[in-house]
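Exercise: predict the fold of this chain.
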Amino acid sequence: MTTPVCTSASDAAVPARQTRPYATYPSFSSYVKARQPVLLRTARSLTANPSDAEDLLQTALTKTYVAWERIEDHRALDGYVRRALLNTRTSQWRKRKVDEFATDEIPEPEPLPGGEDPAEQQALHDAMWRAILKLPARQRAMVVLRYYEDLSEVQTAEVLGVSVGTVKSAVSRALGKLREDPELGLVRNRP
């Protein structure tokens, strides 16, 4: 299961100068726009699932983007991307691990230690994210960086360009607001 991403906290946490670590290549964008349907057909021929084909193409295009400056002959880009598609698919196939076994009965899942119900854990998780989204953007960014990204106070301060004391006080206020959130109180106090 994926953890929801607090987009506004992510935007607040990354200064503008760090949002694009690589140079942008207009020629790459135009290449992708022009050749994507053809390359997607190639990817679909390598996989059985259309969604997997899209993922495969995105991975190959990412590899192409990273190597864009090193590619000397841009007339041979289709060949480069096709080779990236094939190599990526081969790597995926080699790493594939088969954990499926045919049985007459579906096995019961192992009980979790402590007897906690996964539905209760998910309800608490969802309530926590709703409460975090109620926080002001700056406090939300600090809470996400400190507790979800597991950065230290010093690292959080560096990312946000503030002092360590500001991080400490803002996180303390944010945690106080989270403790007072009525929805979290209801979830925590369930029998």
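Check your answer against the key: Residues 1-22 have pLDDT under 50 and may be disordered.
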